[in-house]
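Q: For a teaching session next week I want to show students how multiple molecules come together into a single three-dimensional assembly. I've collected the sequence lines for a complex. Could you give me the predicted C-alpha cells for the whole thing so I can convert them for display?
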Amino acid sequence: MTHLPDGRFVDDEPYDPQQSILELERRDLDAPNWLLVWRKFRTHKLGLVSGVFLLLSYLLLPFMGFIAPYSPNYRNADHLYAPPQSVRWVHEGEFIGPFIYPITAEADLETFQWKFIPDESNPLRIPFLCKGDSYKLFGLIESETHLFCAPEGATLFLWGSDRLGRDVFSRILYGAQLSLTVGLIGISVSFFLGILFGSIAGYLGGKTDWLINRMIEILRSLPELPLWLALSAAVPSNWSPVAVFFIISVILGILDWPGLARSVRAKFLSLREEEYVRAAEMMGASSARVIRRHLLPNFMSHLIASATLSIPAMILGETALSFLGLGLRAPAVSWGVMLNDAQNLASIELYPWTAIPMLPIVVVVLAFNFLGDGLRDSLDPYS
Amino acid sequence: MTPLLSVENLSIGFGAAEPAVRGVSFEVMPGETLALVGESGSGKTISCRAILRILPKAAQIRTGRVILNGEDGTTILSDLSERQMRRIRGNRISMIFQEPMRSLSPLHKIGNQVSEVLWLHRGASERQARRTVMEQFERVGFPDPERAYNSYPFELSGGMRQRAMIAMAMVAKPDLLIADEPTTALDVTTQAQVLGLIKDLQRETGMALILVTHDLGVVANMAEKVVVMHKGRVMESGTAAAILRAPAHPYTQQLFDAAPAIPDEQIVGLPPSQEDLILEMKAVSKTYTMRSGRGWKGEKLIYACRGVDFKLPRGRTLAIVGESGSGKTTAARIALGAEPPDPGGEVLFRTRAGADPLTVHKMDRTQRTAFQRQAQMVFQDPFSSLSPRMRIQDAMTEPLEIHQIGTRAEQRERASEMLSRVGLNPDMLKRYPHAFSGGQRQRLSIARAMMLDPSMIVCDEPTSALDVSVQDQILYLLEELQETLKLSYLFISHDLAVVARIADEVAVMRQGLVVEQAPPETLFHNPQHPYTKALIAAQPEPDIDRPINLKLVALGAGSPDTWAEAFRFTDSVIPSLVELEPGHKVRCHV
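A: Of course. Below is the structure for the complete assembly, covering every listed component.
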C-alpha cells in the first residue's frame, strides 16, 4: 500500500482495468436447472432420506408377493388374533440363525379367550427362498417362491394375525400396493385438471378466469367428507375391487384439483410478468409456444413440489374412506381396509397389533412431507 | 481527535469460500460523512452490515475489529454480546436501507414503527414518543405529520417512505447513521431532495454518516471522505476533494470516466431531419380505468399517456425521459403494438424509406409478423429477461424459430455470429444465463434482439440496473451497433445524463404528457420548462465544485399545479406544446 502526501491511501496491488468481459461470473451456476436443484436438495438430509425411502418403497411394490410370507387372504383358522411372534437368534446359549418358537392356541376357560403358548423347547429355523402360496410377480408372472416363509408345521406372524387369522405383516405389504398407488393416480387426475383449468384461467384472464375461480370456490366450500361419502356410495357395489379402487382414486383427484389450479394460476400470473415471457411475446411467439416453452418448464418444478405435498392428503383420504367402510372393500387389501378391523375399541385394547397399519401410514405421510419440503426449499437454486 | 468509529482490518467470508471482504479499514470522525463507493459485489454493503453485526447467516467475520468511541468510553462492537449489541443498534448507530418499501412493515402504521425505537431504547411513554416522532416528521419534511403518523407504508410515495425511514433512523438521535444506497431506488429529483434532507439533518444534529453508494455524483455532493472498494478490497481512500479532483488509482479513474454527466452545451442543436421517418406516433393517448379504493365509488381514470406525438427518423435515436409513472414505458409499448392506444391515436411504421406506412395497430397477420421482425425490444432487468431454463443458444435462436428462418445449423451460425458481434465468446452458447454477470446478460439480450436483423429497437431503461462502468460499455455497444447497422432507437430512461450521450432528440415526460422536447444540446443549453430544469439540476455530478441546486429542483419537482403560472396544468386545463425555436417544443401557456 502507498500513502500519498495528501494523506490518501492507495492500494498498489496490480489491477487490470480491462477485465475481460468474457469471464464467467458464477461458474458454479453454469448448469441446467435440474442439476442445480439436485445439488441444493442433496444438502437437505431429511428430504434426501425420505426420498430414498419412498423410492425404495415404490420400487418394491411389484415384489411385495415375494417378500410377504403369506398371501393376503390366506386364513389360518386355528390362529385367530395371534400376537406377534418374535424372531430369535440364540437358543439355550447356542446360535442357530433366525428361528421362531411355534405357538399353539389354547382356550382359557376363565376368560374365554384364546391363549397362544410358545413351545420353547422346539426352535424352528425360518426357511429362505422357499415355496409357499402362489402370487403374481409384477401382477403377471406366476410364482411360488417367497423370500422367507413359515417353518413346516408352524406359523410366522411377525406382526400378529387378525380377526380371521390372516397375517398382518403380509397384508400390510400387499396393502401398500393399493394405498401407495391411490395417491399417484389421484394426483395425476388432479394434476391434469389443475394445470388445465389453472393455466386457462391464468393465461386468458377476464371472464374465463372469473368463472373458473368461482367454480373453485364452490368446490372448496363443499364439506369434503360428506361429498366423498356421497360419491363413493354411488359406486355400484357389484364392481370388482380394482374398478372400485380406480374410481376412488379418481374421486380423490377430482376433489383435490382446485387447490392445485389456484397455485398454477397464481404462478402463471407472476411468470407472465417476467421479462423473458414478454420478450417472447414481442418476438411474435404464439400463446401455445409461450406456455409450452417458457411458462410450463419454469413452473413445473413448483408443481412437482406442491404435488408431493398433496399426495399424503390422497393417501389419508383413501384411508379415511376405507376406514369408514366406503372406500375399498374386501377382498381388496389396503391400509384403510385393515384399519377398518381396528374400529372396535375393545379389539384394540385386547389385540393392539391390529392397529399396526397406522405405522406405515404415518411413516409414508411424513416421508412425503419431508420430501416435498426439501424440494420446495431447493427450487430456487440461483443464489 | 479520536474517530467515532474505526474499522480495522476487517475480513468477511461466506462459508468455506475465499473471503468476500479482505483487510478493509476506515475511520469516521464525529460529524463527518464517509462515502463507501463501489459497484455491486464490491463488499461495501457487507462491510457496513458487519459494523452492526447484521450479516446474513452464512457469512462470518474472519478477522478485524470494529471500535466505537463515544462519551462513555470505547466499545469494541465485534466483542459485544448479542444483547449488548441490541442496545447499540438503532440507538447509537442506525441504518437506512435501499428499498424503502421492503424495509417498512406493511402491517403497521408509520408512526408506530418510528415510535418503536423510542419505546425500546428510551423507555418513552406512548404520548412522549408520539410528540417526539411528530417533531421528527415535521423536520424530515412531511407536510402533514399527523396524517403521516397514521398512514400505512403503501399510502406513501417512494420518496415519502424514504423520509419515514430517515425519521425512524434519526429519532433516537444516533451518533452514526449508516445509509445503504438510500436514494438508488428513487427518481432523480426525489434523490436530490432526500440527499439535501440528510445533509441538513446532519448539520443540525452533528451526527456522523456512512453513505454507501455507487454514484460518484452523490459522493461529490455529500462526502468529506471517500473509500473506494472493488472486489472486497479498498482501492483508494482519502478526502473527497483529493480523490475527486485527481483519482490516483486506475479503478477510481475508471469509475470517474464512466460516470455519466450532463455536458455543458454552448450551442443550440439542430433538430433531426423529418424526411425519412421510421416511426410516427400521432396523438397517442392511453387511459386505464382503475377500480377506486372505496367499494361503491365509480371507476377512476388514469391517464398514462396524453396526446403524445413522436417522430423517429431512420437511423436516429429518440429518447423519452421521465420519472416512474410518467408514461414513458406505456408509450414504448404502444409503439411496439403490445398495447392498443385509445381511439384517435395512430402509430405508423415504414419498413423502408418511401414505403407505404403500416398502421401498427391495424395489421393483418402477415404484416404483423413482418413488423415483429423489424421492431425489437431490449428490457430493463438483465436478470429476468432470459429464461433460466434455456441455454443461451436456445434463447438466441428462439426468434428465428418463431419466424421459421433458416435451418437449425444456420440459426446456430447466426447466434454465434451475433454473440461475437456484442463482444462475447461464441462458446458461451452452451451455457446457462445465471452464470453471467448483469452486463454480460444485457449484451445477450441485445444480441437476441439483433437476431432478426431489426431496423428499430426499443430500449426500455437498458442500463438502469447496471453498474456505471458496465453502463458505459453497454451504451458504447449500442452506439456502435447503431452506426454500423443503421438502427433506429427509441430509448427510454429516467436519467438525463445517460440520454445526453446517445440521443438525437429528447422528450421529457411528466404525468403522461410531454413537457419539453428538443435535441439534447438545446435542452441542456436552454431548458425552458421548470421540470426539465429540475431534472438537470438534480443530476448529481462527480464534480465537487458543482453541488446540486436544490432551489431549482424544488421549483420543478413538485406536482404540476405548483409550477410557475405559465406551465401549470391541472386535470382539465392543459397548456399545449408550443414550438419556441425550431425543434424545441415546450408545454406552456403563451
